[in-house]
Design brief:
By secondary structure, the protein is mostly helical. 40% of the residues lie in helices and 6% in strands. It binds zinc ion. The site of zinc ion (ZN) has 8 residues, from loops.
Length: 103
């Protein structure tokens, strides 16, 4: 079935995931907020907002030519998505919660 329907099946599974995510968020009185799928979250430096012209998918970390910060691709993208999502909700500058340290 996957071979016959391919991407269509994956799109349906993702749409179902989003429905479940919205349902759980509503049940727990949380907000699900979407940003533009075209926002360059991986290519934008989360420190200075410099945007690279291109970034190959195989590059997992890169150093910003503007501020010299070493950006892990996924961590950098998550910080940018949080920042953009918070700003479009009117929450302003949102800081990440400090991770709990257990001994
Ligand atoms: Zn930078």
């Amino acid at each position: 079935m996957q071979r016959l329907w391919g991407r269509k099946l994956n799109d349906l599974a993702f749409a179902e995931f989003l429905q479940i995510l919205k349902w759980v968020a509503k049940k727990k009185d949380k907000t699900v907020h979407f940003i533009s799928r075209w926002y360059p979250s991986s290519k934008t430096c989360s420190n200075c907002q410099h945007v690279l012209d291109s970034l190959d998918l195989s590059v997992r970390s890169w150093r910003c030519p503007n501020c010299s910060k070493l950006n892990d691709r996924d961590q950098n993208a998550s910080e940018n998505i949080l920042s953009v999502g918070a700003s479009t909700l009117g929450l302003g500058d949102v800081r990440l919660a400090m991770p709990a340290i257990s001994a």
